[in-house]
Structure formats: structure tokens, C-alpha cells
Design brief:
Length: about 130
């Protein structure tokens, strides 16, 4: 078991990224927002920076569901040799866009504009005759 207070954040991130690369389960001792200390075995899928901290997106074996953990809440961890056993659910927020047109430059231009919700109503002031490649 490695205690996060005894090592740098960089070393902890290296170990967790290595667990993701090798698809190894990790047992963490976690201090949640209520102050309760829990032990969870997780299968990490993502690590990304959050404002002032890092967020761990993982499948929790105790709840059999996807959960987010804050790296600052991890008190200790152990990387195991056992592989992932849980299936990660498909993301529900992401909607796959329609295929981009490849034969018409104007259609491609409006396709790209419609992908961004902020610019969906944008109309160019000048006539665009050719797109730069």
C-alpha cells in the first residue's frame, strides 16, 4: 500500500496511469466529501485535471457503477495484478454527429458550423467561394 501523503502527486499519477495502461484494478482508501473513510476497488478509465486537483473516473466494484473520485481524497492506494472485470457503460451525453459531406465544399462548411451550437446560426457577411485546405 502506498500512502499519498508520503509521495508526490506526480508519483501517484504515474502509478495510476500505469494501472490504466495495464488495465489493473486499484484499491483506494478514500476520504469522501462527508469525511468518511472508505475502501474501494476501482477500475480506472480516465484521469484528468480539474481546477486545482485531478479527477479519477473509474468503475467502482462495490457499487458496480461509474464514479468520479478526487485525487486529493485518495489517502492510500494499492495497484493489483488483477485485470478489469466490469464493463464500462456507454456514454450517454455524447451524440455521434452525422457523417460529413465529402463532395460539396459549401455543405462541408455549413456542416462544420452546425456542429458548434454557438455558431449554428452564423451566416457569413461575404460570399465564400473557396475553402482553404
Amino acid at each position: 500500500m502506498k500512502h499519498t501523503a508520503r509521495q508526490s502527486t506526480t508519483r501517484t499519477l504515474i502509478d495510476l496511469y500505469r494501472a490504466i495502461d495495464h488495465r489493473r484494478a486499484v484499491t483506494i482508501t478514500y476520504l469522501d466529501s462527508k469525511g468518511a473513510l472508505t475502501v474501494r476497488t476501482i477500475e480506472i478509465h480516465e484521469l484528468h485535471a480539474k481546477t486545482g486537483d485531478y479527477e479519477i473516473v473509474a468503475m467502482c466494484r462495490l457499487q458496480n457503477a461509474e464514479r468520479d473520485f478526487s485525487l486529493s481524497g485518495v489517502q492510500a492506494y494499492t495497484v493489483h495484478r488483477m485485470a478489469y472485470v466490469l464493463d464500462r457503460p456507454e456514454p450517454t451525453k455524447y451524440e455521434r454527429p452525422a457523417a460529413a459531406p465529402s463532395d460539396d465544399a459549401d455543405a462541408l462548411y455549413y456542416y462544420e458550423l452546425s456542429r458548434d451550437p454557438d455558431d449554428a446560426d452564423y451566416k457569413p457577411r461575404a460570399l465564400i467561394t473557396a475553402l482553404a485546405a
